[in-house]
Amino acid sequence: MKIYDAAIGPYPARVRIALAEKTMQSRVEFVPIDLQKGEHKTPEFLAKNYSGTLPVLELDDGTLIAECTAITQYLDTLDSAPVLTGKTPLEQGLIHMMNKRAELELLDAISIYFHHATPGLGPHVELYQNAEWGMYQRDKALRGMRYFDGILRGQPFVAGDSFSMADITVIAGMIFAGLLHVPVPAECDALVAWHAKMQERPSVKNRMTMSEKATTPA
Predict the structure, then answer these.
(1) What are the DSSP calls for 99-128, one per residue?
(2) Could you give all domains of the chain from N- to C-terminal order, each with its CATH number?
(3) pLDDT, tens digit, for every residue of 22-61?
């Protein structure tokens, strides 16, 4: 298998963390894509992923799977022993609900802020920007942080009692916020404490060096 990604990217981090949680790093070859050069917008890459986003999983038979949730679902259930996406219908429903909220209320909001209210990836990539929309999304992300802070005051993980795909998505949102120096609201002590614990997980701590350790897929 191949993963097209960028080591520092918050969205690729979601799949890198999932791979580590499943101890599947050795089965993947990482193919770096230069976001600053706009390689994700070239015709060659768009042929792999119409959306022009990272990451993309390419299977040995040439099948291409984009979107972090879809990739994580595939990887997590490949061995019929899911640990990130839920074992029962109830677990699956709750995890997917909270994962979607993490995308909408935090990670995607920070992404929109980055692309519209900051220089983003530069003028050759950011062909349209709306700074007012970007700042609105930054405020939305701060509200999202307060929402997840409230959730984490009542349970140890985003979707309940176990680490899941939903936690990974919130982690990615926090990674992006950190890169952009977007501060966590002062009152969100539960979110801050949870995030500190998550940063100690080997899958999170070692995500940047994963491509150096990965080998050609078996």
Answers:
(1) HHHHIIIIIHHHHHHHHHHS-TT-TTT---
(2) 2-83+204-213 (3.40.30.10), 89-201 (1.20.1050.10)
(3) 999 999 999 999 999 999 999 999 999 999 999 999 999 9
